Amino acid sequence: MKKYYGTELVGKLSELFGPSGCEGNVAEFIISQIDDCCDAYCTDRAGNVIAKMCGSGLEYNAAEPRKVMVCAHMDEVGVMIRDFDEDGYIKIAPIGSIDPRVLCGRNLVPGDEDKRIEGIVASKAIHMQSPEERKHATPIYKMNVDIGANSENEARAELDIGDVGVFASKFSLFGKDGRYMKGKALDGRIPCAAMIEIMRSFRESAKALPCDVYFAFTCCEETSFSATRVAAQTIKPDAAIVLDSVEAGDAVSGEPSCAVKLGEGVAISFADRGAIYDRGLTELAIQEAENGNVKYQIKKTTSGKTGAVNIQRACEGVKVISLAVPVRYMHSASCVADSEDYISLKNFVDTMITANKI
Amino acid sequence: MNLKELIISLSSLMSVTGYESYSTDKLIETIGKKFDESYVDNIGNHIFVKRCGKANAPRILIDCHFDEIGMMVTGYKKGGFLKVTNVGGVDTRLLPSSEVVIFGKETIPGIFATTPESDRRFGDDSLKPIDQLVIDTGYPDDELKELCPLGTPISYKGEYHLLKNNKLVGKAFDDKACGACAVYGIDAVDSLDLVADVYFVFATREEIGCVGAGPAAYGIDPDYALVMDVTNSWIPEMTGMKWTAIGTGVSIDISPVTNRKLTKMTAKLCEEKGIKYTLRASPGSTGTDANSTGTVREGIPTVLCSLPLRNMHTANELLSLDDAKALADLVSEFIKSKEIAEVFAR
Predict the structure, then answer these.
(1) Are A68 and A241 in contact, with CB atoms under 8 Å apart?
(2) Sign of CA dihedral B32, B34, B36, B39
(3) Which residue ranges form the domains of chain B, and what is each CATH number?
């Protein structure tokens, strides 16, 4: 079986507990991975982890260094505890965008940064459903999470209103030769893993970077409050490479609504619901991908959005570009991504930074 | 193996309706030593016999069904996807993003595809029927057809967790948890204490209409029968009374289909032996193997005892281990009961 390098790191990140607003565990893990391969790092007051790698060498302008920001978000979609009922069931609200159809019947891990319990989203048996009920998903506000409590008091002894939860999902490899990765939160954690690996490879090869590179692992991308903007304001970059993922609808959709396909390489966006990306940088990216033999595809829809929406408007404005890894079944317990696309993402960022054209 | 381990061990076996034979060897390996004989009958019932050692002894039938709901491959979609249909009552509300196990020439994992965001119209909450869903396998199309021919069975992926208050969550407790209770209860009784030869039937094809139980009962010709299946416990989505709550012990069904006297004697047995139970009114069909056993041959006096279960037919069925212990205890007492044998043995 072919061994795909780096999937172990993706797996560790995938299984961490980090819904928006509660990313401490992810931040701590990321710091443990990067503290010896950057020149400086900090956790800012919004919770972002920012690591700097200084430039050097002939191409580096030490007097007025160019600053390039590379970012990915640490947070994942999840749920928040809204209320309890007299029988000990828990009512929830989504954090971020979750299709109710992927929540019904799932295993959850409710808790907080320092506590975890187990629960399931209860589901009335098919025998008891009316024909009409079988045609529509139960709305999330009507769902009941069962932690095994027999009463409201028992449930309240375990959890408080405002506690959060994520999907329970073990990371695994699947498909022929284990080429594909399955897990929760892959949409943000794959780009985080790519950034960690890029930093390691720059450090191990003692690469002379032509600019100062700031790697920002950001919070709260899945919600409207974006800590990404805070990171950009701290860094004040000349340009930003925003790493994220884009939903691959190729399992279900045909043309034209299928934005990207799994296994076809890094997705480059011209525009999405959040931002119109810098045309010059985007064309440069395509050129560099061609030159560097990096597999890429152009995203064919303008659905979705990334942290770029906030970076673009930070300070005096920042040039942004979006590079995304295709992910199927996004925002569910079983996201699926292709290890080849993950490798392409790493190579793409490496190529973009070392080309010194940003 | 304690009762919890036995429940998990049997529920984990692959036994999608009609494909129970995939697990014959493992089943016999797990529970065969607890019995004197075991065999598989013509239609695929797994039958285990524990002898009382007396000649011409009466026969007690204990029936649970071995099969679990599942799916079957019906076609392929380009890109490594399988098309499937349900075998038994599969709840399509739960399928998107759920993990399954595909029992082809190799056993491989699969994931039900979800509706991508770009295809979701605002407020769209419609559920597709199963024939419009696909399972992602990550295999090239040619290899997939070779690996998973049409008709390949598929089951939910089973993961077992213990929640608060001794509540166990996992797949296929319907009806293998009851099977585990039966085996555990029978094993706890010394042969010399049995009032009859005990025939434990792990029946085939219950989920598509109680197919196996009748032929099994016909072949065994028992004096009386105890059928055990799971029963829906109240959860908040249901309206009406909060019946058969989890943690209330064995649920004894009172139904026109079952034998009224045997039912009352079984309830009395619980009363005498301190086994927690509730009565449940089932005025029509019970939807279980008890529908079949009662009319076999000259009619077999049958009692139906149920295990309360939440989220039936999902990958996260929930039972109480305390209820399961009560059911196992009832099985032990039932096969030792001289009072019942006196009335019902021929």
Answers:
(1) yes
(2) negative
(3) 3-68+171-344 (3.40.630.10), 70-156 (2.40.30.40)
The two structure tokens encoding residue A88: 């000990």
pLDDT tens-digit readout, A75-120: 999 999 999 999 999 999 999 999 999 999 999 999 999 999 999 9
In chain A, the residue whose alpha carbon lies closest to the alpha carbon of B239 is A128
> Which one, of A324, A327, A320, lies nearest residue A297 by Cα?
A324
What class is the A78-167 domain?
mainly beta
Residues in chain A within 8 Å Cβ distance of B117: 97, 99, 247, 249, 303-304, 330-331
Q: Which residues of A114-125 are buried (b: 16+ CB within 10 A; e: fewer)?
A: eeebbbbbbbbb
Q: How far apart are CA B31 and CA B341, in angstroms?
A: 26
CA pair distance A29, A12, nearest whole angstrom: 9
Instruction: Classify domain A7-76+171-354 at the CATH class level.
Output: alpha beta
CB contact residues (below 8 A), chain A span 55-74, against chain B: none
Q: Is the ipTM of this complex over 0.90?
A: yes
pTM: 0.94
Contact criterion met (CB < 8 Å) for B111 and A85: no
CB-count exposure of residue B56 (10 Å: 0-12, 13-18, 19+): exposed
Domain with CATH 3.40.630.10 in chain A: 7-76+171-354
